[in-house]
Amino acid sequence: MSENYIEYQEERIYSISRVTILLLLTFLSFLISVDYVPNIQLVQLVLGGLMIIALLYHAFITYRPDDFIKLRRNILILFDFIILTFTINTLGENGIYLMPLYALIVMQGSVSYGLQYYISGGLFAIAGFIYLATSSSYWQAHYDVITAFGITTVLIPLFYIKTLIRLDRELEEVEEKIAVIDEVGDNISIPVVGVEERDAYKDEIKKLIRKKEPFTLLFISLQQIFEGKEDDHIADMVLQEVVDEINKVVDEDDLFARLSGNEFAIVSRKQRVFLRKYLQKLETAIISTHRVNDRSIRIEPNIGITLYPEDGQDEMILGKNADEAMHVAKEKQNVHYMFYRALTS
C-alpha cells in the first residue's frame, strides 16, 4: 500500500465510527417531534443519505484500499462538514447542539489520518463557520457563538497531535526491531532438517501478495519449560523432534520456515473455515514432553496469526502484526495462539 498499514487500519476504524454515529443520530432524529423541530423530516432524509454514502465509503476502502487515498479522505472530511453545516443551518437555534461535531470531525480526522488532515479539516470547518455567519440570519445575530465554537474546533485537536507523534515513534521502533530480527535470523547456527530458510518465507509471502491470493501467516515461538522454569535454548534433538511433528500437520501447499533460534513461521493457504482445527492440530503436535539428560522438558507453542489481506498488505506489516499477536499469546495463561484481529477488535 502507498500508505502504511497502521494508517489504513485507522481509516477503517474512523469509517466504522462514522457509521455508528450516524446510526445513533438517525435513531435519535426519529424521537424528535415535528412540533419541536419543524424540519426534522429533512434532517432525517439527510442523515439517511449520509448513512448510504458512509456504507459505500467503507466498502470502497475495504475492497480498493490502495486507490485515491489522500483524495478520498479529504473528500470524506469535506462531505461531513457540508452535511453538518447544512443541518445546523436548517435547525436554526437548535443547531447549536451539533456545533461540537465540528471539533469532533477535525479531531478524529487528524488522529486517524495524520497531521496534514488536521490542517485541511480545520480549513473546512472554518469555511463552514463563515458560511453560517454570512448566510443565516440567526447565526449572524449569534456570531459570538460561531466564534467560540470556531476557536474550540481549531484548538482541541492540537492536544491529540502528541498521540500522532507517539504512534510514529512506535512504528519506527517496530521497524528497528524487525531489522534486528532479520540480522539475527541470518546467523542461525543450530542445524534443523525439514524446514525452509527465512529467505524462502519472505519470497513465498511476496509471491502470494503479487497474486492477490489470500493466505494465513503464523509466527510460532517454541517455549521450553522444565521444573517450573523457562529456558530460551532448546536442545537440538528436541527441536528436531518438534519440527518433525509440525511437518506431519502442515499441508503440502504450506511453507514451513525457520526465522531464528526457536521461532518459526508457516504460510498457509488453508481455507479460513478450517483454520481453527488446523491450529488445534498444531497445538497437539507441538505440546509434548521430552527427556534430555534425565530431565523432563515440556515444549509449548506461542502462535500469532495474521490474515492476508485483512491484517496487512505487505510482508513487513504482516510480520509485525503476527509477532505482536505471538507475544500477547505468550503473556496469557493457557492460551497458545492469538489472532491479530482479536487485538484490534
UniProtKB/TrEMBL annotation:
Nuclease among keywords: no
Q: Which UniProt keywords apply?
A: Membrane, Transmembrane, Transmembrane helix
Q: Which SMART domains match?
A: GGDEF
Protein known as: GGDEF domain-containing protein
Keyword set includes ATP-binding: no
Q: Which residues form the signal peptide?
A: none
- Which spans are transmembrane here? 12-34, 40-63, 75-91, 122-139, 145-161
- Domain GGDEF positions: 213-342
- Which InterPro entries does the record match to this protein? Cyclic-di-GMP_PDE-like, GGDEF_dom, Nucleotide_cyclase, Rev_trsase/Diguanyl_cyclase
Taxonomic path: Bacteria, Pseudomonadati, Campylobacterota, Epsilonproteobacteria, Campylobacterales
Lineage, top-rank taxon, reads: Bacteria
One family name in Pfam for this protein: GGDEF
List the PANTHER family hit by this protein, alphabetically. Answer: CYCLIC DI-GMP PHOSPHODIESTERASE PDEF, OXYGEN SENSOR PROTEIN DOSP
Task: Give the molecular function GO annotations.
Answer: cyclic-guanylate-specific phosphodiesterase activity
